[in-house]
Write a structure and sequence with these properties.
It is built from two helices and five strands; from the N terminus they run αβββαββ. With 110 residues, it is of the alpha+beta class. The chain is 22% helix and 22% strand. It binds guanosine-5'-monophosphate and zinc ion.
């Protein structure tokens, strides 16, 4: 766990989140500020800052995260969805613990 990382705190259970899937490698929870009716984040339990800091050793983990997207999107009732990985401050990344956004289903009900 990396101190002061919000997603490490969610992994550790010290900050609550609405978790929709969890295994030894990843946790998946709903985005606190959804861009669509369904919007969840696929997050590795290991602290990796961004795609910029990924290495060949992370290949299987990255593949696992991507393969979870259609599985969980279907479970959440989506027939199609968008994926997004913001990388670096200039790429719009706000939380520096790598994550895949998965969203769809139209505008959120807010
Ligand atoms: P980024 O811009 O880094 O790709 O996206 C970070 C995402 O994390 C944003 O969509 C934001 O709403 C979400 N987020 C930030 N803090 C929290 C939190 O404490 N809990 C949850 N569930 N989502 C968060
Ligand atoms: Zn972290």
């Amino acid at each position: 766990m990396t101190e002061d990382c919000i997603f490490c705190k969610i992994v550790a259970g010290t900050i609550p989140a609405t978790t929709i899937y969890e295994d030894n490698d990843v946790i998946v929870f709903n985005d606190i500020n959804p861009m669509a009716k369904v919007h969840f984040l696929i997050v590795p339990k290991q602290h990796i800052e961004s795609l910029n800091s990924c290495e060949e050793a992370d290949q299987a983990l990255l593949g696992k995260m991507l393969l979870l997207a259609p599985k969980l999107a279907t479970e959440q009732g989506l027939k199609g969805f968008k994926t997004l990985i913001n990388t670096g401050r200039d790429g719009g990344q706000e939380v520096f613990h790598i994550h895949v956004h998965v969203f769809g289903g139209g505008e959120p009900n807010t």
